[in-house]
Design a protein that fits this description.
Layout: H1 4-35, E1 39-44, E2 51-56, E3 62-67, H2 74-85, E4 93-97, E5 102-106, H3 122-136, H4 153-163, H5 171-186, E6 192-194, E7 203-205, E8 211-213, E9 219-221, H6 227-232, H7 241-244, H8 247-257, H9 262-280, H10 294-302
Antiparallel strand pairs: 1-2, 2-3, 3-5, 4-5, 6-9, 7-8
Helix pairs in contact: 3-8, 4-5, 5-9, 8-9, 9-10
């Protein structure tokens, strides 16, 4: 297993729990493959925070096995989000053992990413994403365990408390994003199950639907939140002005295709862009390079369009 990037990320996020999980990963993988009667079908996918590999089920169904740190929240929110959608424009959840940190997922085939359409067919890509947003916006089921979207504002508040104006990002921008997020959540026209990270790399080509969403973060809240990640992706680390220049057209298209006031698209785009760079800045130390990405460029692009 080539796990350098996975090891670094897992240890950074989960510390000793992550180290123990990594040490046990080969055994966990072997045990899950045996218990669930799976056959490995090729190597692992590109790894970031989870071990993800193609498998075939006993009945011949192609699937994806996803393993993660059991004490973490990510699989515990991904599973109920996928369950709520029941295959509606998202991969199906075939099996889950959260105490083991294991999900068995439908495999999207052929699996090309929506990012492949950017920038030459960006209108088509945005339309595909908007169609998925409409389908995923379902009411949360009874006793839904997903967290409220407003919990994310805590990350903005923590940044301001820790750095004020002395951090790697403009403090006034983060304060504005925190206040605006509270206003948007308070005025939400509906509360729905949210993907929470619906961008071009998390939408794959498929056969039973043209496109399927993967890797939801899982929240409940304002459907407008979903537009944000699409505005500063793909490749947010690439501060290419040509990619930033796509944002105004995306804003108008999303507002039109989602029947959403353009002001809310702009506002959620700004909030999510700032949130993204705040998350990136969590491990920043004085003297280190700025972690700012194209998300910050998008935030500044949208800033003049925010309500006074």
């Amino acid at each position: 297993m080539a796990l350098d990037g996975l090891t670094r990320n897992v240890v950074t996020v989960w510390g000793e729990d992550g180290r123990r999980w990594l040490a046990n990963l080969p055994a966990t993988l072997a045990r899950t493959v045996r218990d669930w009667e799976l056959t490995p079908d090729g190597g692992a996918y590109e790894l970031s925070y989870h071990y993800v590999t193609a498998v075939t089920c006993a009945d011949g169904t192609p699937a994806v096995l996803k393993l993660g740190v059991p004490s973490g929240d990510s699989l515990r929110t991904e599973a109920p989000a996928l369950h709520a959608w029941a295959g509606r424009c998202a991969v199906r959840l075939l099996r889950a053992d959260l105490d083991r940190g294991a999900l068995l997922l439908e495999r999207a085939e052929p699996g090309g990413r929506l990012r492949d359409l950017v920038p030459t067919h960006d209108t088509e890509a945005t339309s595909a994403a908007a169609a998925i947003m409409r389908q995923l916006a379902v009411p949360p089921p009874p006793d839904c365990p997903l967290p409220d979207l407003l919990t994310l504002v805590g990350g903005l508040d923590q940044y301001v408390a820790a750095h004020g104006d002395g951090g790697p990002l403009p403090g006034d921008l983060v304060v504005r994003a925190a206040g605006l997020m509270r206003e948007l959540c308070a005025s939400a026209p509906a509360r729905v199950v949210l993907h929470g990270d619906l961008h071009h790399d998390n939408i794959l080509r498929a056969t039973r639907e043209p496109w399927l969403a993967i890797d939801p973060h899982g929240f409940v809240g304002d459907p407008g939140y979903e537009v944000g990640a699409l505005l500063y992706n793909p490749e947010p680390d690439d501060r290419d002005p040509a990619l930033t220049a796509l944002v105004p057209a995306r804003v108008e298209q999303l507002a039109d295709e989602l029947a959403m006031p353009v002001e809310r698209v702009v506002a959620w785009g700004f909030v999510q862009a700032v949130l993204s760079d705040v998350w990136t800045a969590e491990d920043w130390r004085p003297g280190a390079p700025s972690p700012a990405s194209r998300a910050l460029d998008v935030a500044y692009l949208l800033l003049p369009r925010l309500p006074e």
